[in-house]
Amino acid sequence: MSKKINVLFICQHNSGRSQIAESYLRKFAGNHFKIESAGLEPSDRVNPLVVDVMKEEDIDLSSKKPQSVFELYKQGKLYQHIITVCDKGEEKCPVFPGITKRWHMPFPDPSLAEGSADEKKEKVREIRDMIKDWLQNPTINSFNYKNIIK
């Protein structure tokens, strides 16, 4: 097997969107990619609503620990693809050395879901499904893992 392609998903807290994207790409094509996710200001834990809605997809995030994008940078990690999945992340992301393709795909922040507990969970499901759909059906000028592994 050839060397895996390194991919990093970045969002603000690494507690929602980037965790979802990392998990789905690992599920869809983990044999081709080494996938990580990180946040600019990492939370203490993955958002419990995200953990719940990903369990519905048979993906367990309960033991995942958010990590800092800056710590990965300090460790000298290199990525061929860096994908930001939040509105504010694009401007604040560190410049990683090496040959890197940068992508930006903004998604709503699950931690900002409002309403009753059921309404919040439904909103997080919608965000989960948007990320899953984007990875399975990328738009033009978007990260497309299917084209990368051809």
Write the layout of secondary structure elements.
Blueprint: E1 5-11, H1 17-29, E2 33-39, H2 48-55, H3 69-74, E3 81-84, H4 89-92, E4 101-104, H5 117-136, H6 145-148
Parallel strand pairs: 1-2, 1-3, 3-4
Helix pairs in contact: 1-5, 2-5
| Number of structural domains | 1
For the biggest β-sheet, the strand order reads 2-1-3-4
CATH homologous superfamily descriptor: Response regulator
Give the count of helical stretches.
6
Q: What is the CATH topology descriptor?
A: Rossmann fold
Termini separation comes to 14 Å
Q: Portion of residues in helices? A: 25-40%
Instruction: Tell me the overall shape.
Output: globular
Q: Specify Rg, calculated over alpha carbons.
A: 15 Å
Give a description of the structure.
The chain has 150 residues and is of the alpha/beta class. The chain contains six helices and four strands. It has one domain (5-148): Response regulator (Rossmann fold, 3-Layer(aba) Sandwich). Strands 2-1-3-4 form a four-stranded parallel β-sheet. Strand 1, helix 1 and strand 2 (33-39) form a beta-alpha-beta unit. Helix 1 packs across helix 5 and helix 2 packs across helix 5. The two termini are 14 Å apart.
In a nutshell, what does this entry contain?
This protein is an alpha/beta fold and 150 residues long. Helix content is 37%, strand content 15%.
